[in-house]
Specification:
Helix content is about 55%, strand content about 5%. The protein is of the alpha/beta class. It has a five-stranded mixed sheet with strand order 7-5-9-11-10. Strands 1-2 form a two-stranded antiparallel ribbon. A two-stranded antiparallel ribbon has the order 3-4. The radius of gyration is 27 Å and the shape is globular. The protein starts with a helix and ends in a 9-residue tail after the last strand. The model has no long low-confidence stretch (mean pLDDT about 95).
């Protein structure tokens, strides 16, 4: 027992230590002026708009962005567990902080220790330890996604759900007694995954479950081929388990109720609201990942940052390790599958899911869209998140051989694994994690103190990653400004613009009606009528002031704003957007406003 505790302590310390090194900064909020800011913002929005009683529901229809027109905020990058965590910390510590850095390390530790606990009883401590590291800190795609795409790097419950599903299938096929507590634990995990990103992360756990259940049903039918006895056997099983595991079963049932209350209402609200929108007229992004990327090793000169494979593969490359979990792991998976090739029921769900993910193209081969939870999955490369899990599950059954060839291959694969672990992880440490500057926080504190309900970013950006708003001219400086709306989490006022992963064409109609694209056109000189419109817009809608971006405007444009509304009272630099100054409007009533 003490030996096993030592393994647990070891994997926790190693995972937490390596994860903390990758995170780097635990003192201030994350910010890079791009996608990194989105996830703190969603947590902020979640906390401001969540009603818990009688069950959790979100106020999605509001004017907190796209002010004063408003819109349905359903297409934010939800991750309900992450959002609960951020909202709770925001309330407890009275404002923003480094909450997501701690959450990410927690995610890595849960994935590692949970995988170890599930795998060790069937495959031994050493294999479980290595596998726990593979699906956490040495999941290179995931650690490179932090913090820019935090929605697809936090996957601990999905990992555990997939591993638990495989363990359940293995136990049933081997005719081992599966406790009622384990069945309930498995159900609980499927509720927990709803707390993670719905379109890209939770769906993978639900997919493996969907593919595994028919195999489980056939296996159980073969073991109990008399339907007339099923009810009696079930009652006897439940009674015996209840008598012998009353406390554990009660705890499991309690966890199921709590998780169902926390996540199920929100999941249903978001899913049914999102399905109300028809995106048939919006072209689907053709983002896919070539299956041959599986063979790219994480070695100097060969990894995807050292060599550009895109001209040869002609796919859509998004980030390091896309499609490449490690050549060592691919080889181990092939060897493991070969040894269990005759146990079709054991590998069929895993291999089927792997094929679905490898072949997925959002338009040409939409395999994953067979499942409703992948309705809005627009990038095939993001399945890379769960390749270490699927390949690791295939590799687990490898039985060592004492032949010279097998021993030699073991040495080669061990060296390759160590080299890929070092290369992939050390590359990540060379990439700094961007955080909010002290100057930015002081600037936002000044803005927060001003009377008024909203701030106008000028120019602003109202756009979707699906292209809606961009071609209409509502975001002339996308690269610089797609995340400026997120800084409202620091100054707590409504904003005019916002970036969404998906934006429906109906959402931008008020902007087009009021001819904002003309005013946003780079270098455009306002007419007297334009200034009158802007004056009335700011006055009628109780704006506190203007975030003006001098680096994105001509000197004449900046001068006109100063002459019209006065000199700024604060200045800083927003990541990506550059210099920003705040012009208050509180004293302009007797002047222009």
């Amino acid at each position: 027992m003490s030996k096993k505790i030592g393994w647990y302590i070891g994997i926790v310390i190693l995972t937490a230590g390596l994860g903390s090194l990758a995170v780097g900064n635990f003192s201030v909020p994350l910010s890079d002026g791009n996608d990194t800011d989105q996830y703190e913002y969603v947590g902020y929005f979640f906390g401001k708009n969540l009603n818990l009683w009688p069950f959790p529901q979100l106020n999605l229809l509001n004017t907190q962005s796209f002010y004063p027109y408003g819109l349905n905020q359903v297409f934010l990058d939800w991750g309900f567990e992450r959002d609960y965590w951020y909202a709770l910390c925001y309330r407890l510590f009275d404002g923003p902080g480094p909450y997501l850095q701690f959450y990410y390390v927690y995610s890595l530790v849960v994935a590692a220790i949970g995988t170890f606990a599930l795998i060790a009883p069937r495959f031994g401590l050493a294999k479980a330890f290595v596998f726990g590291l593979i699906v956490s800190v040495f999941n290179f795609y995931a650690i490179w996604k932090f913090p820019v795409h935090m929605n697809v790097c936090v996957d601990h419950w999905t990992v555990l759900c997939m591993v638990a599903t495989y363990r359940l299938l293995l136990d049933v096929l081997d005719k081992k007694n599966v406790s009622l507590a384990y069945w309930l634990f498995w159900v609980w995990l499927h509720l927990q995954v709803l707390g993670q990103e719905l379109g890209y992360v939770a769906g993978f756990a639900l997919t493996l479950m969907t593919l595994t259940v028919p195999v489980l049903a056939v296996a159980l039918y073969r073991q109990f081929p008399q339907p007339g006895r099923w009810m009696m056997l079930f009652r006897t099983y439940v009674r015996d388990q209840w008598n012998h595991q009353f406390v554990v079963v009660t705890v499991a049932l309690t966890l199921i109720v709590v998780s169902a209350w926390l996540y199920l209402p929100l999941t249903l609200q978001i899913a049914f609201t999102a399905w109300e929108f028809d995106f048939g007229a919006v072209p689907e992004l053709r983002a896919w990942s070539h299956p041959l990327r599986l063979l790219i090793p994480h070695l100097p000169g060969l990894h995807t940052f050292a060599f550009d494979y895109k001209p040869y593969l002609r796919d859509t490359f998004e980030s390091y390790a896309q499609g490449s979990p490690g050549l060592y792991l691919v080889v181990l998976a092939v060897l493991g599958w070969w040894q269990i090739r005759r146990r079709v029921a054991l590998w069929l769900p895993v291999v089927t899911m792997l094929i679905f993910c490898l072949l997925y193209h959002p338009v040409l081969i939409p395999t994953l869209k067979l499942f409703p939870w992948f309705s809005f999955n627009r990038h095939g490369g993001r399945a890379s998140l769960i390749y270490p899990v699927l390949l690791g599950l295939l590799a687990l059954p490898i039985r060592p051989s004492r032949s010279p060839l097998a021993l030699g291959l073991s040495v080669v694969l061990s060296v390759l694994m160590a080299a890929e672990w070092y290369t992939g992880y050390s590359q990540r440490l060379r990439m700094p994690v961007n955080v909010a500057s002290e100057s930015l926080m002081q600037y936002c504190a000044v803005v927060k103190q001003q009377p008024g309900v909203a701030v106008l970013d000028w120019p602003f950006c109202a756009v979707g990653a699906d292209g809606v708003g961009a071609k209409e001219g509502l975001c002339p400086y996308y690269d610089q400004q797609n995340a400026v709306f997120t800084f409202r989490r620091f100054y707590d006022k409504s904003v005019v613009g916002q970036y969404f992963g998906r934006l429906h064409p109906t959402h931008i109609q008020p902007f087009l009606r009021d001819e904002w694209p003309r005013l946003l056109r780079p270098g455009y000189a306002f007419t007297g009528q334009d200034w009158q419109f802007l004056d009335a817009f700011l006055r009628t809608n109780h704006f506190a002031g203007i975030n003006l971006y001098p680096d994105l405007l001509t000197a004449d444009q900046v001068g006109e704003f100063y002459r019209r509304y006065g000199r700024p009272i604060a200045e800083t630099r927003f990541p990506a957007a550059g210099r920003v100054v705040f012009i208050p409007l509180r004293n302009k009533a007797k002047n222009t406003l």
